[in-house]
Amino acid sequence: MDPDRRLTLEFRPALDDAGGRKELRDGLSTVMQLGRTLWVANDESSTVERLTLHGDRAADHRQFRVGDFVDLPDPGTDGDAPEIDVEGMATADGWLWLVGSHSLKRCRVDPDASVRKSIRRFARPESQANRCLLARIPIVERDGLPELARKARPRRAQRLPGDAGGNALTRLLREDPHLAPFLGLPGKENGFDVEGLAIAGTRLFLGLRGPVLRGWAVVLELRPAGDGRALALERFEGRKGARVRKHFLQLGGLGVRDLCLDGDDLLVLAGPTMSLDGPVRVLRWREAARGDAACVLPADRLDTVIELAYGMRCDHAEGLALYREDPSSEPALLVVHDSPSQARQVGASGLLADVFELRRR
């Protein structure tokens, strides 16, 4: 389906390099609107980006290094922290929430290396500590715009404790009968891979790109809360309740690529779990925020909102957000893409994002 209109994202050329790995615009993984600003992140950086809305443009690029606000497991050197692989953002009660992919990655094969070296290198999945990040950072207002702060009394930035071996969430999942076998697999190989975040009250939903189990995707539900300087996972249903709820959604073999809350509903951006092109669609999980137990949702309980176009090795929809041109307007759907096609790139550091009318019924 073609978009109803487009929004031009304009990054500062001096910042459009994602730490020298690739341009920011080439790897957007999540998007969120906050007032008259848009927030996006690149999956190979350790920063989040703020753009200010001006009609059909989002410009005045401001960059925030996550390590300036949260003590990262691997801070790197000279302020250049290794990638976080930010895959989800949401805001609630004056906090910006961030989640990394929590996934392993397979070493790339160098086409110029020997066969023996390539085979040996290909056998080594990599674990990167910063990818196991679940954090919240206080939002403050300066000069009429939201920005991040390490402290905003009585609030302070916090993360779920973790290191290169994982964090409190992955340690809980090591004994999980569904997910434990996939923690040691790279994300793009149907391994454990977080790629969506939404918040409803005190409940946080994490969408998993993988694993997909016999065609069923997984959404985790948590109750994170501040515990001194760190986040902790509270139990559901009293002292003996679980700290993680699992929801299973029949997405026809697709995984979750992003989540966003629309009233009491969750909008699910569904796409391939492996390194494949399409299909990609947005589905509605009705009254997800009202549920108080784990659930199993067959395909007929998920409404298709929109079928998204995709390219061959380009234009992969990765980020989904509700978007309002002004506070009184009806929300639309904003979609940003990884690996954008040349037709989507504007000038040296601009990018076209798609806007769709949101049909609720």
What does this entry look like structurally?
Strands 1, 2, 3, 4, 5, 28, 29, 30 and 31 form a 9-stranded mixed beta sheet that branches. The mean pLDDT is 92. The two termini are 17 Å apart. The protein is mainly beta and 361 residues long. Strand 15 and strand 16 form a beta hairpin. It has 2 helices and 31 strands.
What's this entry about, in short?
By secondary structure, the chain is mainly β.
What gap, in angstroms, lies between the N and C termini?
A: 17 Å
Query: Shape from CA axes?
Result: globular
Main sheet specs: 9 strands, mixed
| Beta-strand segment tally | 31
What is the helix content?
under 10%
User: Whole-number radius of gyration?
Assistant: 19 Å
Strand content: over 45%
Rounded mean pLDDT is 92
Stretches where pLDDT is under 50 for at least 5 consecutive residues are none
What class do helices, strands and sheet pairing give? mainly beta
Q: Helical stretch count?
A: 2
